[in-house]
């Protein structure tokens, strides 16, 4: 499914730092993280929240008792007018991309001038659940499940997501050494980007604060004792090939905890605007949103999803994949991203040049927003015309968003 846009623009964006699983953000719901990111994006864009016409929020797992209201609460506590609607979207790991795609479509169809697209996820607060408790259990048969652990297995195939990456490793002849080398490069690139301040222009700190909107209840951001503010991605760290090589396989193959995406909490947000509104306000946008694609692939090799999705947006624009100067593809697993690289014959010097999810982390609903924002900024930094952001999704899907830097 390909959607093309004639005059939709990515104005600005922001994201929270990504915090390690059960770390600094363990007490924060996806809603609170989403509000921080949304308010940051609005501040950096200079857009008055009263001018937002619609809000879309990508989110996968409920992380609070009020999770049903996530999109609406993100909008309200960010200052969006009461009468403007909000919607949660879920395409698993591609949910952030879907939020942007829905925002772009609303603008393209003329139903919105300015849209807020957010992705937010608390992996730490994925609940422990007991299905069927409302109707009761037989004696001694009460069952509880770790929802995060269980949902990493596709019940249709019986395969954990890591096994789908192992399938790609066998199909494309990818070795453990190659996967570890890619992971070491991801850490090195992310660390270098962090040290030169690349991420500073997209990260807004998370600190102890309150979100007030009268007459609604006040929301409070809580951090662990002794933590007043979080301002950097804390999974990014010096990591050597030798360290990665000492880790045990997680699925009896090439994948380990060190060469797979980090489990983190975080959120991101971007502001999209119609061309007419952008020109009237004389704004300098980050990029034009050219198109987005959604594709299905075999669930057993779900990680190859970005390959057909990227081909689709390139073909739709009449360009070659090789014409795309910067590619941000989610590193769900090292073997998965290497399979996509081989399938598309991608130049490694253009792929995830500031590191990827192995180093930075993959908060499911937020990843698409982070990748899109980073792709635009990375391409603009070096004067490339085209950038793409993409990811795979469990169950066998892929999405891609093509951007033009003008």
Molecular structure report:
- The chain has 406 residues and is an alpha+beta fold.
- The chain has one domain (2-125, 195-236, 260-404): Thiolase/Chalcone synthase (Peroxisomal Thiolase, Chain A, domain 1, 3-Layer(aba) Sandwich), CATH 3.40.47.
- It is built from twelve helices and 19 strands.
- The protein has helices at residues 30-45, 70-77, 95-108, 147-151, 161-172, 176-195, 241-245, 275-280, 306-317, 334-344, 357-360, 367-382; strands at 2-4, 8-15, 19-20, 54-58, 86-89, 114-121, 128-129, 145-146, 153-154, 159-160, 206-207, 209-211, 219-221, 229-230, 264-274, 287-296, 326-329, 386-393, 397-404.
- The strands form five sheets. Strands 1, 2, 3, 4, 5, 6, 15, 16, 17, 18 and 19 form an eleven-stranded mixed sheet that branches. Strands 7-8 form a two-stranded antiparallel sheet.
- α2 (70-77) links the parallel β4 and β5.
- α1 runs parallel beside α2.
- It is globular and about 55 Å long.
- It starts with a strand and ends with a strand.
- 56% of the residues are buried.
- The mean pLDDT is 97.
Protein traits:
406 residues, alpha+beta, Peroxisomal Thiolase, Chain A, domain 1, eleven-stranded mixed sheet, two-stranded antiparallel sheet, 32% helix, 22% strand
Top CATH class: Alpha Beta
Query: pLDDT average, as an integer?
Result: 97
Query: How much strand?
Result: 15-25%
The DSSP helix count reads 12
- In helices, the fraction of residues equals 25-40%
Low-pLDDT parts are none
- CATH homology superfamily name: Thiolase/Chalcone synthase
Radius of gyration: 20 Å
